[in-house]
Structure prediction request, 274 residues.
Amino acid sequence: MNHQQRLDIAIRIAKEAGEQIARARREQNFSHQYKDDDELVTEVDVAVDRFIAEELEAAFPGEARLTEELSPDRSQLERNGALWVVDPIDGTVNFAYGHVHVAVSIGLAVDGELQLGVVHAPFLGQTFAAIRGDGATLNDEAIACSKAKSLERSLIATGFPYARDRRAPLIRRLNHVVNACRDVRRNGSAALDLCHVASGLLDGYYESVSPWDFAAGLLIAREAGAHTGHLYECPDGLPADLYGENLIVTAPAIFEPLGELLQHADAGGRVEFE
Ligand code: IPD
Ligand code: CA
Ligand code: CA
Prediction:
């Protein structure tokens, strides 16, 4: 089966998952739990994870999967061969509160390299997709990232981890970014942030996230012409395409200046407020 056929199946699955998410929100009959103390997870996250896993297994029997709720074993990142990387609901807090930035994210890596991905946002009516080397699309139309040339004219998105004790250094970064850039967005879905860099709704994005949050969106942003990378070197043994610490994804011209700004913030540099 070629990549286009695989992507078509992944898109079909993501859209069906999106219908389940939209139905669950209409009916409002799902329970909320917490994992790792403070991280919200609903019954729908788990049910949609199970649905996607069953559909992928039916279409691609025996291929490995890394899924946030039911198969989160990260040792799979080091294996060779095909690996499906799935976030059933990216933007769980948005889903639970009734906000629109909610997405299903399905990516495929082979030997650690991203090959294809789909991010489907049921409440926005947006389906982003990409195949490595073939460009990126939004609802079947080709997309390109913005042509932002300077930080002052750039809209930058980021996010924060659920663990509150990991947020302080990120506030330092935020302080620098707010000072240097047009403005900041915290929309609550890393997958969509990446796709919105891909389609020019944002000029850049940085965050540390898990593989399921970014796998599909990173490829989509890259295929739309965005520069993608990490603020610091990736560790040996883990494929860079699946390593989510200190991600930075931007319109090409602001990749370096944003990277330097964030490193300056990390090094305890002062914010030069005028
Ligand atoms: C979260 C979202 C959010 C990001 C968090 C992620 P979830 O995913 O992508 O934007 O800032 O770090 O955990 O929990 O809604 O699937
Ligand atoms: Ca997520
Ligand atoms: Ca999730």
Q: What stands out?
A: Helices lie at 3-27, 43-59, 92-97, 168-180, 190-198, 211-223, 255-266. The pocket of calcium ion (ligand 2) is lined by residues 87, 90, 190, 212-213 (CB under 6 Å). The mean pLDDT is 95. The domain at 3-143 is CATH 3.30.540.10 (Fructose-1,6-Bisphosphatase; Chain A, domain 1).
